[in-house]
Amino acid sequence: MGGFGSGRRPYTDRPTCEELPALDVRVLARHGLTAAGTQGTVEWTSQGQRIGTARVVGGDKQITVTYRIAAPGITDAERVVRIGLTYTKPGYGGRQAWFVCPACSRRRAIVYLRDEFRCRDCHGLAYQSQRWGKVERLVQKTERIGKRLDGISVAGEFIPMRPKWMQERTYERVLENYRGAESSSREAIVARLGRTRFKPGY
Do residue 191 and residue 94 come from a single domain? Predict the structure, then answer.
């Protein structure tokens, strides 16, 4: 039985980072879990459903992760792994924690759980955006810009409005970018539909 990301995919044979449980050392560091004697819990979800949990015990040179995966068709026994830590000194002071990938020993911010915790390169993972075509990328860009604006929905159409805190000049620039992205995404959708062939019948 394969682990996470072992099923068939319509666009690529490579699983994506977004569909696998992961640990981000930057998040753990913000919660103090790169210090000895600290503990915390990580919960992994997919489409709103919990698929696994992990108990993390912090340390200066490594963290200890006790985890269990429970997803449809997969019931794992509890497992314990240790992942090494290393540090760099950024220009703004302090120190930056990194994982040491258990497979390649390279410095990584995130490790992903497939059968074992490994970095993106060792698992051969793609990013979700690499599956997207032109339409999906343009729609995503439109939505990303739209999140900076207030607005109302009229007959399913988003009508952008200036947030109270946003300066008028900034709003005009963001609105122009939003309208440009929206126009491009609609043109791409129309072009895709124009290439779609529908067969009559059932």
Answer: no
- Comparison of pLDDT for 130 and 161, the residue scoring more: 161
- Model confidence, pTM: 0.58
Long-range contacts of 139-143 (CB under 8 A, 24+ apart): 139/185, 141/181, 141/185, 142/178, 142/181, 142/182, 142/185
pLDDT at 62: 94
Chain center to CA of 145: 18
Yes or no: say if 57 and 31 are a contact pair by the CB < 8 Å rule. no
What angle, 0 to 180 degrees and rounded to 10, lies between the N-to-C axes of helices 134-146 and 168-195? Answer: 160
What pLDDT, on the 0 to 100 scale, is given for residue 72?
Answer: 56
In this structure, which amino acid lies at residue 10? Answer: P
Tokens 């340390």: give the residue. Answer: 59
Strand partners, 100: 84, 107
Domain's final residue, options 87, 109, 127? 127
Q: Indicate the residue among 127, 151, 173 that finishes a domain.
A: 127
Number of separate domains in the chain: 2
